[in-house]
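Figure 2 data, in text form.
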Amino acid sequence: MDLGPYLLFASLEGLVHAAVLSLIALGLSLVFGVMRIVNVAHGEFFMLGAILTWWVSNFVMGNPALGFLIALLIVPLVVGIIAMFSDLLILRHLKYDPEVTIIATIGILYIIQQFALMTFGPDARPVEQPFNIRLDLYWFGFSAYKFFVIFSAIILLFCVWLVMAKTKFGLILRATQLDSEIAQAFGIPISTVYSLVFGVGAAIAAVGAVLIVPIQQAHYLMGGEPLLLAFIVVIIGGLGSLKGTVVAAMLIGISDGIISVFFSPNLAKILATLLVVVVLLIRPNGLFRTIRI
């Protein structure tokens, strides 16, 4: 097989990675853009979504498509509610101090991780794909489910943009983001908005987990690498920028897929980290300087 088919295959795998990474990074960017806090526990909400998907798929036995559909509807909602309770019980009492909340979210990280270890166990466990169809792309076959992951991420990103740009709720979020004190003076319940944003950010990451876990395996330590890559994406794209998040996720995801196929996954992570250093030196605020959703 010539170089072209290999490059196409690597690019498609990179697109799948970029699709899920964009959802994880979007939730992280949304929380920072509105609340101005760094959620170190974001990767664990992603992991929790994967483990809950495994539980739901095993509860609905005999029909993987039905189990996947139920998980896609229920798991993000459950993870979002857990995140909202974390905000209500912990972060709100810390008055969202940026330094203190970093320590607090580290504590939330370990609580979720240890809870998953005690209930789920230390072993990685697979989730069956809802449909197992391979599409003939002339040179090779490619999973139709992976195309489904890519298109699902595109639809969700578009829906988030619509909400942010065209709805009253999006206007409230943008007002809170620009100046929370002025927004509160106009009657916007800032604490409620913060809880909703924290829950929505975790729920978006959980959607990414539901989509990716039939390709990968659910594991209680699977939140670490996505969190690192999400931070890289958010830093490169610009903190709080939806457009920057998508562009950076595409850049990191596709390059990771190509480099992993032709060289090694470790080299892809090293180059991504070096790219962060270069971006911080040249454009400290990221590729898209304006901090906006």
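Caption note: The radius of gyration is 19 Å.
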